[in-house]
């Protein structure tokens, strides 16, 4: 007699809650209410006849049974995801989902998309924007373009184009703190950050500086909002040169240091190493790394 499986939604709720150790964060990830997550967890525990979580006033933690159960459930979801990807990839045509940062999308990719369509009319690009590096095993994203040093363990990373980033601040902040004489001076300045709070860290690394403190200050997932925060004097910002060109020329912002050319500080095409030869991905990779990319440097 075939054994009855637990409800799939309950298993998803268990995996998410166990990963976050939070009913609230699991609910946000699954787009349901915390009450719904709690109910699904109870349903699963009743089905299994054992407790998977201990509930405490400040949250939840896994029981021994929950810790034993979690690896198998995660592996099962990975197998389902991988099988689904293989089936979807068996067709050479269709939709290619590309995750890019908002500024790269508007400044570089969108103006050039017609070129890709002319070369590969059988592939439709679906562009999704965001700043965080995606989880390729869960998101449905095929490839991503991210800005940084291109160091992503377990992923294939190819430099698309080197960008010119400049450090700027409002005149009021410069008047209060004085002009920095070297990149190291900025480690003590208030800073405005990207959503992942990595931009400044990468910039300091590229200038051979080990930061003495963890990044502090406000962060934004939109470069336009980040620019507004810098203009209002909330801190120094690391922004694309082309994006702040008018503000610097008008005196609304001051470029604090000469631009340092860092070849590795660039936009990178990122994808799982074991998927780079899939036809749709290979076509996009060949196009974005080809002469079109090298013929024009972007500043963002």
List key phrases describing it.
alpha/beta; globular; D-Maltodextrin-Binding Protein, domain 2; 5-stranded mixed sheet; 3-stranded antiparallel sheet; 12 helices; 3 domains; 300 residues; Arc Repressor Mutant, subunit A
Strand-helix topology:
Elements (H helix, E strand, L loop, with lengths): L7 H13 L2 H8 L3 H15 L4 E4 L2 E4 L1 H26 L4 E7 L1 H18 L3 E7 L6 H4 L3 E6 L6 E8 L2 E5 L1 H7 L15 E2 L4 H8 L12 E2 L2 H9 L5 E4 H10 L3 E2 L10 E7 L6 H10 L2 H4 L6
Parallel strand pairs: 3-4, 3-5, 8-9
Antiparallel strand pairs: 1-2, 5-12, 6-12, 7-10, 7-11
Overview of this protein structure:
The structure is a single chain. The chain has 300 residues and is an alpha/beta fold. It folds into 3 domains: 8-88, Arc Repressor Mutant, subunit A, CATH 1.10.10; 91-162 and 265-294, 3-Layer(aba) Sandwich (D-Maltodextrin-Binding Protein, domain 2); 165-255, Periplasmic binding protein-like II (D-Maltodextrin-Binding Protein, domain 2). The protein is built from 12 helices and 12 strands. Strands 4-3-5-12-6 form a 5-stranded mixed beta sheet, covered by helices on one side. Strands 10-7-11 form a 3-stranded antiparallel beta sheet, sandwiched between helices. Helix 5 links the parallel strand 3 and strand 4. Helix 1 crosses helix 4 (64-89) and helix 2 crosses helix 3. The longest helix is centred in the N-terminal third of the chain and has 26 residues, at 64-89. The model is unreliable at 294-300 (pLDDT under 50).
């Amino acid at each position: 007699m075939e054994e009855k499986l637990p409800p799939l939604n309950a298993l998803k709720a268990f995996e998410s809650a166990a990963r976050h150790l939070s009913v609230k964060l699991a609910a946000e990830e699954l787009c349901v209410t915390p009450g719904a997550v709690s109910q699904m967890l109870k349903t699963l525990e009743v089905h299994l006849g054992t407790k998977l979580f201990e509930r405490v006033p400040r949250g939840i933690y896994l029981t021994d049974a929950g810790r034993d159960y979690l690896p198998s459930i995660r592996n099962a979801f990975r197998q389902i995801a991988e099988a689904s990807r293989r089936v979807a990839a068996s067709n050479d045509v269709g939709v290619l989902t590309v995750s890019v940062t908002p500024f790269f999308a508007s400044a570089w990719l969108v103006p050039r998309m017609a070129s890709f369509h002319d070369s590969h009319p059988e592939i439709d690009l679906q562009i999704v924007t965001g700043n965080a590096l995606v989880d390729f095993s869960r998101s449905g994203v095929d490839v991503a373009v991210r800005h940084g040093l291109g160091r992503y363990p377990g992923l294939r990373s190819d430099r698309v184009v080197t960008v010119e980033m400049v450090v700027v601040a409002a005149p009021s902040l410069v008047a209060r703190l004085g002009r920095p004489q070297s990149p190291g001076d900025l480690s003590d300045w208030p800073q405005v950050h990207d959503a992942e709070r990595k931009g400044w860290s990468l910039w300091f690394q590229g200038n051979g500086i080990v930061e003495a403190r963890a990044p502090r200050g406000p962060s934004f997932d939109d470069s336009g909002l980040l620019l507004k925060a810098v203009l209002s004097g909330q801190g120094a910002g690391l922004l694309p040169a082309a994006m702040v060109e008018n503000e610097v020329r008008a005196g609304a912002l001051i470029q604090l240091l000469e631009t340092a050319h860092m070849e590795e500080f660039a936009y990178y095409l990122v994808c799982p190493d074991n998927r780079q030869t899939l036809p749709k991905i290979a076509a996009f990779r060949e196009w974005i790394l080809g002469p079109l990319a090298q013929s024009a440097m972007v500043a963002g």
